[in-house]
Amino acid sequence: PALARGYHEKVISHYEKPRNVGSLPKNAPDVGTGLVGAPACGDVMKLQIRVDDNGIISDVKFKTFGCGSAIASSSYMTERVKGLSLEDAEKIKNTEIAKELCLPPVKLHCSMLAEDAIRSAIRDYRTKRSQLSNPKKSGF
Ligand code: FES
Ligand code: FES
Q: Does residue 137 fall inside a structural domain?
């Protein structure tokens, strides 16, 4: 049992006890929301970030309506990006997630959802910020 602890259990726990499940207030000015779907299977992932004044991700929540690998991928992603700058968070590749979670090739698209979702959340946050600083352009 002592030998069995460690990496394998860390991976399994993302499947059995996903971290950071939930929602952040979509309309808050410091929250970015990414909502993406996988055409291959129809699974959907929502990932939200809260960004502090220094551009650091201070909170992350997800809701995934999809397979176990997609849920584990989003759980992994939330832990991975918390405390990162937006620039560092958008560099995370699905291949890293797939490797960490030991996803088989047929499940690669599940980890792709998590990569798409964090990028989409970052994009949403930046769009929101630029609209807030240029209210005339966005028609507010
Ligand atoms: Fe269990 Fe890879 S961590 S199979
Ligand atoms: Fe499509 Fe996992 S089977 S996201």
A: no
Q: Which two tokens stand for residue 72?
A: 């584990």
Decide if 1 is inside a domain.
Answer: no
Terminal alpha carbon distance of the chain:
60
The model's pTM is 0.86
Number of domains comprising the chain? 1
Q: Which atom of ligand 2 is nearest to the CA of 66?
A: 4
Q: What is the CATH number of the domain that holds 117?
A: 3.90.1010.10
Ligand 1 centroid to residue 17 C-alpha, Å = 15
Ligand nearest to the CA of 103: 1
Could you read off the pLDDT of 101-119 as tens digits, one per residue? 999 999 999 999 999 999 9
**In this structure, are residues 46 and 64 in contact, taking their beta carbons and an 8 Å threshold?**
yes
The ipTM, to two decimals, is: 0.63
Domain that holds residue 99: 7-131
